[in-house]
Amino acid sequence: xxxxxxxxxxxxxxxxxxxxxxxxxxxxxxxxxxxxxxxxxxxxxxxxxxxxxxxxxxxxxxxxxxxxxxxxxxxxxxxxxxxxxxxxxxxxxxxxxxxxxxxxxxxxxxxxxxxxxxxxxxxxxxxxxxxxxxxxxxxxxxxxxxxxxxxxxxxxxxxxxxxxxxxxxxxxxxxxxxxxxxxxxxxxxxxxxxxxxxxxxxxxxxxxxxxxxxxxxxxxxxxxxxxxxxxxxxxxxxxxxxxxxxxxxxxxxxx
Length: 255
Fold this sequence. Notes:
about 260 residues; globular; NAD(P)-bd_dom_sf; SDR_fam; NADP; oxidoreductase
């Protein structure tokens, strides 16, 4: 289904080359948005961009955990599209499910750098731009249903996503009077590269069955599910929503 819910908008989507990020990019483009596909890997971003009409997207290869890359990404977006209306902090990592005391410190630090620090960097770089231009920007952050419903053996991942949820709500309160909206999505497991690590490093029908047993709707997320949710939160239809943490979890949080 296509439309014009994001017509004349320009967005940055981090981790946009694959998984949930690709689903978000596809939905945004279908709804009239021009998108800077930010990924750390060139090949998936290039392949995805090639599937769209010319000038609908551009590519930025960079690391969301580096402050200077945020400045460079904003500069490129302004060069390519003339403005920036929407930021989607989608890029994220997870550790392999294991006993909490066995997770290496480097992995914990990596999750903090990739899952949490980009919210700080994007606020530091993009909010002043919106303020200078008098724009009412929108930020959509990808949290996780593990933030309100943490589970054993993925505690440090849940902790990083809990920080995303808390930061989203705090930033929403701080910038609402400037017309800048912050919301987040809290997905259940989806068809991404995270399936194997969440299942202890392997992706098997048996381990998926255990996960599915805890999701009343009976399936995991698709990239399209997350694209649809992100599009709504980024659109003017959600202009009264800020500080919302939307559970896209098939009822997982009810279990």
